[in-house]
């Protein structure tokens, strides 16, 4: 009976941690993308001849910002479906 209580505690804490991790990383990615897009528009308005160069750099930066979010989602899915903490509790 005590093992089930520990298992439920680990699973509920993991679910809460996954929600926080994905939520905060989505918030950070959203803020980062908004700041980047705003700065791109400001710089494009100041020097329109640099738009092609700035656009390439903006897309590279957007990929890097999204990569951090996607990595946190992947780690969250790892803990959701193959939680190593649960296997330690089960003895295997």
Structure description:
With 92 residues, this protein is mainly α. The longest helix is centred in the first third of the chain and has 45 residues, at 2-46. It is 89% helix and 0% strand. Helix 1 (2-46) packs antiparallel against helix 2 (51-81). The model has no long low-confidence stretch (mean pLDDT 91).
List the helices and strands and how they pair.
Blueprint: H1 2-46, H2 51-81, H3 84-89
| C-alpha geometry | rod-shaped
Distance between the termini: 18 Å
Q: Stretches where pLDDT falls below 50 for ≥5 residues?
A: none
The largest β sheet comes out as: none
Mean of pLDDT = 91
State the total count of DSSP E strands: 0
How many DSSP H or I helices?
A: 3
Strand content: under 5%
* SSE string, helices as H and strands as E: HHH
* Amount of helix: over 70%
**Helix- and strand-based class?**
mainly alpha
Spatial extent as radius of gyration? 20 Å
What's the assembly state of these chains? single chain
Quickly list its features.
92 residues; mainly alpha; 3 helices; rod-shaped
Characterize this entry briefly:
With 92 residues, this protein is mainly α. The protein has three helices and no strands.
């Amino acid at each position: 009976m005590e093992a089930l209580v520990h298992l439920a505690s680990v699973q509920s804490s993991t679910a809460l941690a996954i929600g926080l991790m994905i939520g905060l990383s989505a918030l950070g990615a959203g803020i980062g993308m908004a700041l980047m897009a705003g700065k791109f528009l400001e710089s494009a308005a100041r020097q329109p001849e640099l738009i092609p160069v700035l656009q390439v750099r903006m897309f590279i930066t957007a990929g890097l910002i999204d990569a951090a979010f996607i990595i946190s989602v992947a780690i969250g899915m790892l803990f959701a479906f193959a939680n190593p903490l649960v296997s330690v509790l089960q003895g295997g």
